[in-house]
């Protein structure tokens, strides 16, 4: 799919908030090089898709797609999710491909599963050397979609016991990348048996995830 095709897919995905027959879109899980476990949290995206379908009226396919950073496949998925614990490396060609995707209307959610912060910041600087990750204020609309979060991101897992923070890369007024740090939304989206989080905490994670999805398409 070319740039125009991606924009058409984004428009179509927005209309998928109304019920139509058959799933209209899959989340894309970003596969990257460097040794980081991009594949962690295998049950998170299916659960988020089901939650969005129930609470937002979307028509997402729970069977997400795995897409490589440098592949044209990313243009088939207007919402990409990226996670892991360790190193992240983008080649020049991969960085350029991801930049083209984001400038064409795509959206990237990065969720630090603990330990990827210093690596992902370097990788994304290669994608947008002219931009910096800036913390979004609690008044940002991403925190007041279907579910209100007046204090910003919920704290799902302890990690280094720092406050959860939401950072963004903004291009010409549009949020192209949202980075959840010291939060671990993806762990909260997983099956309850995986991390044994209280259901109340899982619901917070899923609600915030739904907000991100809704904001990505509404903007």
Describe, in plain words, how this protein is organized in 3D.
This protein has 219 residues and is α/β, with parallel strands linked by helices. The chain has a single domain (3-218), classed as Domain of unknown function DUF4159 (Rossmann fold, 3-Layer(aba) Sandwich), CATH 3.40.50. Helix content is 35%, strand content 21%. The chain has a seven-stranded mixed beta sheet with strand order 2-1-3-4-7-6-5, sandwiched between helices.
Task: Please describe the structure with a list of short key phrases separated by commas or semicolons.
219 residues, alpha/beta, Rossmann fold, seven-stranded mixed beta sheet, 7 strands, disordered N terminus
Break the fold down into its secondary structure elements and pairings.
Layout: H1 3-15, E1 25-31, H2 44-55, E2 60-68, E3 79-84, H3 92-103, E4 107-112, H4 117-127, E5 134-135, E6 165-171, E7 174-181, H5 185-189, H6 192-195, H7 199-218
Parallel strand pairs: 1-2, 1-3, 3-4, 4-7
Antiparallel strand pairs: 5-6, 6-7
Helix pairs in contact: 2-7, 3-4
């Amino acid at each position: 799919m070319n740039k125009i095709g991606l924009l058409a897919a984004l428009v179509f995905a927005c209309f998928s908030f109304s019920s139509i027959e058959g799933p209209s879109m899959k989340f894309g899980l970003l596969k990257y090089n460097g040794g980081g476990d991009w594949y962690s949290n295998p049950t998170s995206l299916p659960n988020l898709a089901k939650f969005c379908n129930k609470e937002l009226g979307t028509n997402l396919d729970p069977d997400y797609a795995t897409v490589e950073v440098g592949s044209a496949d990313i243009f088939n998925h207007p919402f990409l999710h990226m996670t892991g614990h360790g190193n992240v490396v983008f080649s020049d060609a991969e960085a350029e491909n991801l930049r083209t995707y984001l400038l064409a209307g795509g959206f990237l959610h990065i969720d630090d599963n603990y330990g990827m912060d210093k690596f992902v910041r370097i990788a994304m600087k290669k994608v947008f050397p002219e931009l910096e990750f800036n913390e979004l204020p609690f008044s940002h609309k991403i925190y007041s979609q279907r579910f209100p979060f007046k204090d910003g991101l919920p704290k799902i897992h302890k990690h280094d016991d720092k406050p959860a923070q939401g950072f963004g890369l903004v291009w010409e007024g549009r949020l192209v990348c949202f980075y959840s740090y010291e939060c671990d939304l993806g762990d909260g989206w997983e099956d309850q048996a995986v991390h044994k989080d209280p259901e109340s905490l899982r619901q917070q994670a899923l609600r915030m995830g739904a907000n991100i999805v809704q904001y990505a398409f509404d903007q």
